[in-house]
Model the fold of this input.
Amino acid sequence: MARSSAKREPTGVVLPTAGTVEGLGCTPGDALFLGRTIGERQERSFIAAGVRPGPDQPGAERVFLANDVAVLHATVKAILELGRLKGEPIQVRPGGELARFLLEAELGRRGVLAAYLPPGMDQLDAAALAELPTVELPAQERLLDMPVHHTQFGADLIQVPVSDALLFPASHWLQLLWANLLGLGPFLWRGLVGPALPHVIWNIGRAWLGARSLNPYRIGAQLGRRGKGCRVHPSAVLEGCWLGDGVEVGANAVVRGCILADGAKVEELSVVDFSVLGKQAMVQRQAMVRFCLLDPGCACAGQMQLGVLGRDAALKHGATLMDINYSQGVRVRAGQALHRAPLGLAGVCVGPRSIIGSGIKVASGRAVPPDLVVLPNPAQVLSRIPGRCEKGTYKLVDGGLETA
Done:
């Protein structure tokens, strides 16, 4: 007997709740999240969970995401299952340790993150969805150990929650950074090790055979994904990384637990740990990048940790983006107010197309506006050299030389 009607797919709707990402100036849908944009990740997450992306369809079963929310496809699937279990309209927020972390990371943001409407409901806007009863997603998370300075925290590490069901706002540069850091581990595990136990056993076993050792670092070096046309120097250390097409890694560079999008480049003797690099982003010779987000086209030749480089921005050799205060936790500006950064840690955001000159240090928690060129103090740059100098010792004074 033929079926009278096909089952209608649920609809995935993106709500325009946020304008631009503070500090970066781009729309949330264009912000970098795990090598792609948030908009692309949301669409892929809908499709992978069996939800059809599109405009609001009154009467249909619907999953809503705010346009500034970073998700993985497991998140959409979990929202759908939770909504069907409840059988009523709900808004959804993270549960477990991620919920507590989010309280620190909201930075004054209010409103709905995600919501579910069962079939038969009328159209609702973001304000109406925010009035729905709140249900927490079941906690399926692990705590990641993150090294910190003993002086500030009284400990050598803190624990950060990571979950496949990531649901995190990204309307501020620091939120966007943490969304990438919290999503990086689950993304790499699923992409490199496998989504299910049979894949995990197969991939770990193959890595063990390739390493011919029980050393976890050697096994990790066998786990990785390389796109087409990648060039990795034989002396480079590459462990647990996802590489797009045309990526280059130079001699004696060390890259661990990273996503490098198409055309990204890490030059020789550089160190890049647990970071996300956008298309054509570059880490230059001897630079250090740890727990960072580098937008497409930017270049880092200095040192940065827990920081963000905007599109086509540059950090010159010897420049440093600081990430910690020793007297108190770092605070960041969001809107017109100062907020304590999550865990008291935050680096620096360099806005699109801005350049931080050689030797400059930027204090933690700051956001450098777009389109600035920040130069070192001319008095500390040798710019006037006499035609003849007697043999001896000189000191630098106001850009010139004086006998010491």
About this structure: Residues 232-371 form a domain with the UDP N-Acetylglucosamine Acyltransferase; domain 1 fold (CATH 2.160.10.10). The helical segments are 38-48, 73-86, 96-105, 126-129, 150-153, 173-193, 197-211, 216-222. The first helix runs from residue 38 to 48. The longest strand covers residues 141-147.
